[in-house]
């Protein structure tokens, strides 16, 4: 990947305070590398964060940041993107945040093909609140909230987003920083909804899904699936969500990418100019509600 500027340009005013060994560091490095590779200016990028250890990146990353409520980074990003489609809108959040409290927003954003990029720190546990099971925790996972083990099977975010209409679906791993940076770069360049699920260890509260576990299980996809069915099958390889599951190989890479009109490209009121450059007088009611005037 060609680096057009110093990734450290994207460092914010505060240094990261995550636990030593946390996967957040790898994701942070990969994201800065991708932004630098794309030649983006920090003040021209909109970031949206949820609640969690990942959300603390709001203070560590330089850009126009918004620290939202739990699970609500996605709807805020959708609103900002419709107002200002020229700036990338990147949501950075955790598995508890996006696949728990924010799951309905995730599926709605995929269904609308909103041009936002959702990057999920998936460590399969709520870290900031000190170690409760999340929707991606494995069946049987012991935690403060599940002392007898998780009863349910984990959700599969990739297949959920694929079947909801997401047009860019990928998975990365925080120990593969260059590979992850390339995925981020493509996800940000994609026009439409992008999900990048990022496998990462929480060294403090998840002793099962460790960096060593992933290193011995992940493999890189050699090519992108050409048809939807193939992408869905590949996305279903892991996690196993049925009885007699094993902890088999875990594919990482881009599972699916398809260009189709993003939500804001279908809005008649944005046909001539974007909302952030229109005066209130110019936003005529007949443009907004053409069927009712
Ligand atoms: Fe990272 Fe877990 Fe520590 Fe949070 S609690 S900073 S996710 S290692």
Keywords:
293 residues; alpha/beta; Rossmann fold; eight-stranded mixed beta sheet; binds iron/sulfur cluster
Poorly predicted runs? none
Which H/E pattern describes the elements? HEHEHEHHEHEHEHEHEH
Count of DSSP strands: 8
SSE class: alpha/beta
| Portion in strands | 5-15%
Helical fraction = 25-40%
Assigned CATH class: Alpha Beta
User: In the CATH hierarchy, what is the architecture at level 2?
Assistant: 3-Layer(aba) Sandwich
What do you see in this structure?
The protein is an alpha/beta fold and 293 residues long. The chain has a single domain, classed as Thiamin diphosphate (ThDP)-binding fold, Pyr/PP domains (Rossmann fold, 3-Layer(aba) Sandwich), CATH 3.40.50. It has helices at 24-37, 57-60, 73-83, 95-101, 103-111, 157-163, 177-189, 211-215, 228-235, 285-288, and strands at residues 46-49, 64-67, 89-94, 117-122, 168-173, 194-199, 218-220, 250-257. An 8-stranded mixed beta sheet has the order 2-1-3-4-6-5-8-7, sandwiched between helices. Helix 1 crosses helix 7 (177-189), helix 4 crosses helix 5 and helix 6 runs antiparallel to helix 9 (228-235). The structure holds iron/sulfur cluster. Iron/sulfur cluster (SF4) is lined by residues 18-19, 22, 24, 53, 123, 127, 202-205. Iron/sulfur cluster is lined by residues 18-19, 22, 24, 53, 123, 127, 202-205.
